[in-house]
Amino acid sequence: MAVGALIAGVDSSTQATKVVLIDPADGRLVAQGQARHTVTGTGGARESDPREWWTALRDALAATGRAREIGAIAIAGQQHGLVVLDAAGQPLRAASLWNDTRAAGDAERLVERLGAPAWARLTGLRPVASFTVCKWAWLRRTEPDVAKAVTAVRLPHDYLTERLTGRGTTDRGDASGTGWWSPSTGEYVADILGLPEVDLPVEQLPAIVAPAEAAGGVSVSAADELGLAPGTIVGPGTGDNMAAALGLGLSVGQAAMSLGTSGTIYALSERPAMDPSGVVAGFADATGRFLPLAATLNCTVAVDRVAAWLGLDRDDVAPADSVVMLPYLDGERTPNLPLASGTIRGLRHTTTPQQVLMAAYEGAVASLLVAFDAIGEAVGGLDPAAPLLLIGGGSRGKTWRSVVGRLTGRAIQVPEAGELVAIGAAVQAAAVLRGEPPGEVAARWGGAAGVLLDPVPMDEERLARIRELLADVTAEQPVPGTA
Predict the structure, then answer these.
(1) % of the chain at pLDDT higher than 70
(2) Please, are residues 199 and 37 in contact by the beta-carbon 8 Å criterion?
């Protein structure tokens, strides 16, 4: 292929950077590379040196063997992380990552400051420890000298994009996870930036780049470091969830369920979501629409733990019969039961380990359905005819597919594409290079193509049993703030 013909999409995730090179005409994967980086911290701390992300990007591009053929590149990164820079653009400290929980108390104080309804109205979010505004409040409280030296605040994808171009930019999708930007107005929120706990000049934040607008071109120095051609077009980039949704080519009203260590479900919406309970995060997407999202803590890792206890393979299951389980081994986020533990009901002398394992699957999926219902309520309903897209590592498991189908009663589609976050970033880059709307590029590439499983009758009896147990557990341990 001619020089400059390929599109690069980058997934800078928590522990690794992945690069895919795509033929922009049809979305065909041409080459890929990967490099790992380090996460440090004990207790609630989870940090990474942002400079490692840059080194990993260099190494992953080199691993493709075709970096000089790239005509456009875009970065998708882990959401919410706090990167603080000095006047020379150098990190003042390690980045606090999305899963760093040290800002939990700061989140509570921020909620108390304005009230949950005001936060939802202004930002689409209720503050929790993962959001950037809470991490910034934590930094100002615990490391005031560092905070005073800050001249620029960035997200992980912003940091990499800025090193590529020399310009401080972000996009609406990733900005919507900070807690100081409004999906409804498309502007930074002065009422949040001016809070005593925040006190952040808007000039220290990156400019918002439109979904099909270039963030700039690769500088001569960055090109020399990374093996790219100077002037290579750089797309706006976005957060990882927004990139995955873009890679799938979600249609309005359609939902995707991700089965990983934790579970995530999100849908494409024409209107922003505002949920004061905090179950639904009212994110923006990478096309100009919105991406309400809800997450659960206990998904594949909890089910695998139950299988290990029982000495079973993952798919060695049998109909659960009387057994019902809520595998809340680490508490649960959706439903909001942070102090809950695993609960099982209905054991008999005749109960087999295979039945217990099936009950664990069903309990994990039922939590995701609570999240699914909350999203539908937040956006006024989802398209009942659209297949539910099933992604993440668990989507390859036959039992996961079966249980999701049986408890939702929906058609299930399992995309074949693997690196959906990197592919979504590549969609962005192609849109900028070719002057097309990102959604049209995604539709042409067909990232959601894969196995389509016909709907089966919803197992109302199993759902009723699980909901009964959930009601009892909730009554025993009231949701925080309602007792």
Answers:
(1) 98
(2) no
3-state secondary structure of 21: strand
Residues 172, 252: Cα–Cα separation, whole Å:
18
State the residue range of the domain holding 16: 6-239
Q: Which two tokens stand for residue 329?
A: 């081994």
Of 106, 174, 240, 275, the catalytic one is: 240
At 283, phi and psi to the nearest 5? -75, 160
Q: Does residue 19 lie in a domain region? A: yes
Q: What is the largest CA-CA distance in the chain?
A: 72
Phi and psi torsions of 440, nearest 5°: -70, -40
198 within domain boundaries:
yes
**Distance separating alpha carbons of residues 124 and 178, to the nearest angstrom:** 10
d(CA 97, CA 157): 12
Let me know if residue 312 belongs to a domain: no
Q: Is 219 among the domain residues?
A: yes
Reported as a single tens digit per residue, the pLDDT across 426-461 is: 999 999 999 999 989 998 998 888 899 999 999 999
Closest CA to 27 of 424, 433, 450, 452: 424
Q: Tens digit of pLDDT for each residue in 119-148?
A: 999 999 999 899 999 999 999 999 999 999
- Specify whether 459 is catalytic: no
pTM, 2 dp: 0.90
Q: Distance between CA atoms of 383 and 374, rounded to whole angstroms?
A: 14
